[in-house]
Amino acid sequence: MTYRYHPHAQQELDDASDHYDSIDLELGDSFLEEINDCISRILMFPLAWPKAQHGSVRRCRTHRFPYSLIYDLEDEQVFILAVMHESREPNYWVDRL
Asked: Looking at the DSSP assignment, which residues form a beta bridge with residue 84?
């Protein structure tokens, strides 16, 4: 199974990574490692996380950072719709479906 980012989700990832890099480069690296670990868990067990309120979309939370990956499954591919900060409006990404 493979994965891809929605362009806005990629921008969210880049922005969050830049933010943590501006605090400390190691923190930025830790954030990206956490996101990669989250993606690895999703790829191994794509149906393990609960569905969000919107169809087949699921949400996998990171362990160390206040972020979740919002994703859907499309033809043996994980489509990451959002790299969502937990304090952001919960359903801002719905128009990406």
From this structure: 68
How buried is 70 (Cβ within 10 angstroms: 0-12 exposed, 13-18 middle, 19+ buried)?
buried
d(CA 38, CA 90): 19
- Tally the residues of the chain: 97
What separation, in Å, do the N-terminal and C-terminal C-alpha atoms of the chain show? Answer: 20
What's this model's pTM, rounded to 2 decimal places? 0.92
Q: What is the pLDDT along the chain (97 residues), one digit of tens a residue?
A: 899 999 999 999 999 999 999 999 999 999 999 999 999 999 999 999 988 877 889 999 999 999 999 999 988 899 999 999 999 888 888 888 8
Domain ranges of the chain: 2-86
Q: Which token pair is 93?
A: 């990404």
Q: Is domain 2-86 classified as CATH 3.10.560.10?
A: no
